[in-house]
Write a structure and sequence with these properties.
The chain is 25% helix and 21% strand. By secondary structure, it is α/β, with parallel strands linked by helices. The protein has one domain: Alkaline Phosphatase, subunit A (3-Layer(aba) Sandwich), CATH 3.40.720.10. The strands form five sheets. It has an eight-stranded mixed sheet, with helices on both faces. Strands 14-15-16-17 form a four-stranded antiparallel sheet, covered by helices on one side. A three-stranded antiparallel sheet has the order 8-11-10. It is globular and about 55 Å long.
């Protein structure tokens, strides 16, 4: 039991695009995730955890600020980005961040990430961190010279040639595992823990882009799940849509899943080493550790056989996320079925530190009020869930998809044509959470003077 008067260290680890269905702790029988499974046995696992908003950057706004990004009012894209979606923008400069609140509370703060979207000019997620490191080299990073890609390696892959070239020169998949961006990210985190133990309490935020696309794992991880003889040609990414529309991808789905599973095990390996470091230096009794993802993805394992994570297909593969908290003195191995979201993570961080903060969300270590439903927005689509209904549609509520979670927990049969009451309830609660109508952002065909897309809100 930790001394309640002793300030808690707090470590948050986010793994991008990690779906619950690929973790042993959430019931997967074939993927090897011994460290995450052990971590879940030592902490509290939330079985109904979902994103507050989507995708990558909107979720990071939530995690770094503690404020809802939903419903994406006032979308203002930044120049020179590589993604343009409602909500995809920096945090507001006039709102304090979680890290800044912790600095005020006497904490030392650290941030390490290999998520390339953090590096885009104009993003401001390093605010409040005394130490921070951007680990270069994930496929979408504007780092290596794509023209320098080995032409002989191109034949191993299928898909967008620019993405393939970036993967070859940035990830360098033939290099030892220790040099992959994932390993370098966690090694920096391990050094931070070792070097900052025993001084002031610290807050460490670790953001791993893996297992996000591009989906090629080190060969020794792939071999755990797939046949090397049929690994190639590798699809590093998949077109977002139904697999029925992409027959050329169908034969390679086992290879794609095996590479993704290998990346999940890679994250598990390095997360385990970070946990071992915390334990080895004697900090486990006064350190709260949170592990989560921003969203999942799909491998044609849903009603529409959707691949990837398109905004118009908000099935459990995308919307169910792992969320596990290990807190000194808490009951070990507990499973909580309460609805929780990514918004609850910053509230938990500040509560564990005893820091003041005007944030939304609840302390995951002491949920005292029951939440009846959760809402989310992704692009121009909205999602809602309560105890018996799963719903998503356009933000104007056209083309709704509705599923009865009691009779159909996997969301296989759309019952929208006989679910007017459920649609009305979802609409009412989504608009109540939004505080107004959710704007539909339509992209103009023209751009501004420097090539930045322009959007009209309707």
């Amino acid at each position: 039991m930790a001394d309640s008067a002793q300030p808690m260290n707090v470590v948050v680890v986010a793994a991008d695009t990690l779906r619950t269905a690929y973790l042993g702790a959430y019931g997967n029988p074939w993927i090897q995730t011994p460290n995450i499974d052990r971590f879940a046995s030592e902490g509290v696992r939330f079985s109904r955890a979902h994103p507050e908003c989507l995708p990558t950057i909107p979720t990071r706004r939530t995690l770094h600020s503690g404020r809802r990004a939903f419903p994406f009012l006032g979308y203002d894209p930044v120049p020179w980005d590589n993604v343009y979606l409602p909500g995809w923008q920096p945090m507001s400069p006039d709102e304090p961040t979680v890290a800044e609140r912790l600095i005020e509370a006497g904490y030392h703060t650290g941030f390490v990430a290999d998520v390339p979207h953090y590096f885009v000019p104009g993003m401001n997620f390093t605010r409040g961190f005394r130490q921070w490191e951007f680990v270069r080299g994930q496929a979408e990073d504007r780092w290596g010279a794509a023209a320098h890609a080995d032409e002989k390696l191109l034949r191993k892959y299928r898909g967008n040639e620019n993405r393939i070239r970036a993967h070859i020169v940035n990830v360098k998949p033939e290099q030892p595992e220790e040099e992959w961006p994932t390993a370098r990210t966690f090694r920096w985190a391990m050094r931070f823990v070792e070097q900052n133990r025993g001084t002031t309490p610290f807050y460490l935020y670790v953001d791993s882009f893996t297992p996000h696309e591009t989906w090629e794992s080190p060969l020794h991880y792939y071999e755990l799940y797939g046949d090397v003889d049929v690994r190639e040609p590798m699809w590093l990414t998949v077109p977002y849509g139904s697999a029925n529309d992409h027959p050329d991808i169908e034969p390679q789905l086992p290879s794609i899943r095996a590479n993704y599973a290998g990346l999940v095990t890679m994250v598990d390996t390095w997360f385990g080493r970070l946990l071992d470091t915390i334990d080895r230096v004697g900090l486990s009794d006064n350190t709260v550790v949170v592990f989560l993802s921003d969203h999942g993805t799909n491998f044609a394992d849903n009603a529409e056989r959707v691949l990837g994570k398109p905004a118009n297909a908000l099935y459990p593969g995308t919307m169910d996320i792992p969320l596990i908290v290990r807190s000194p003195g808490a009951t070990r191995g507990q499973v909580v079925d309460e609805f929780v979201t990514t918004l609850d993570v910053p509230a938990t961080v500040l509560a564990a530190a005893g820091a003041d903060g005007d944030v939304a969300g609840r302390d995951l270590r002491a949920l005292v009020d029951r939440q009846e439903y959760v809402t989310c927005r992704y692009g121009n689509f909205a999602w809602y869930r309560d105890a018996d209904t799963w719903f998503f549609s356009s933000v104007d509520f056209s083309d709704p998809k509705v599923f009865d979670l009691v009779d159909d927990p996997t969301c296989a049969t759309n019952i929208a044509d006989r679910a007017a009451d459920r649609i009305a309830r979802a609409r009412e609660r989504l608009l109540a959470d939004a505080g107004a109508a959710m704007p539909f952002y339509r992209r103009r065909s023209a751009t501004d003077a420097i090539g930045r897309p322009q959007f009209d809100a309707e």
